[in-house]
Amino acid sequence: MIWNIVLTALISCLLLIVEHYWPTQAMIKRPLNKLWAYTLGTLAIQLPFTVLMIVWDEWITVYALWAITLLGGLVVAAVNQLDVYLETRTRMEISEHEAQSLRPGHGTDDR
Predict the structure, then answer these.
(1) How many other CB atoms sit within 10 Å of the CB of residue 8?
(2) How far apart are CA 80 and CA 57, in angstroms?
(3) What pTM value is reported for the model?
(4) Listed residue (1, 2, 18, 13) closest to 48, CA to CA
(5) Which residues contact 8 (CB under 8 A, 6 or more apart)?
(6) Residue 12: its pLDDT value, please?
(7) Could you tell me the sign of the dihedral formed by the alpha carbons of 19, 76, 34, 27, in that order?
(8) Going by C-beta distance under 8 Å and a sequence separation of 6 or more, which residues neighbour residue 55?
(9) Rg, C-alpha atoms of the chain
(10) DSSP 58-80
(11) Torsion over CA: 33, 38, 43, 45 (sign)
């Protein structure tokens, strides 16, 4: 049983090393999206563990693992989208403020 765990951990480590050094950016001609990197890293850890649980006939563990992983992944994606929205909104507000300060008559009394 210990050797199964060691083998599963080694497979997971090897997958993570391959993912880290695989020339993904050169293949897709752009940097890898942060969420895709998270997804690939999570799969490199979860898939070997899932196979181990299936071999041990621990189906309830497989269901729990993937339910938690999928829900967690959805939360990470949602929070990332929220960050993008908030950053874009902040940049827009700063840009509008700077544009107003450059308009003629800004800061003068037009009465």
Answers:
(1) 19
(2) 36
(3) 0.77
(4) 13
(5) 48, 49, 51, 52
(6) 98
(7) positive
(8) 4
(9) 24
(10) -HHHHHHHHHHHHHHHHHHHHHH
(11) positive
The pair of three-digit structure tokens given for residue 98, joined into one six-digit string: 């700077």
Tokens of 79: 């929070």
Are residues 44 and 12 in contact, defined by beta-carbon separation less than 8 angstroms?
yes
Give how far Cα 81 sits from Cα of 35, 39, 42, 78, Å.
10, 15, 19, 5
Instruction: Give per-residue pLDDT as tens, 44-101.
Output: 999 999 999 999 999 999 999 999 999 999 999 999 999 999 999 999 999 999 888 8
Rounded CA gap, 37 and 77, in Å?
A: 12
Q: What is the DSSP string of 10-27?
A: HHHHHHHHHHHHS-HHHH
* Terminal Cα distance for the chain, rounded: 85
Tokens standing for residue 88: 């874009």
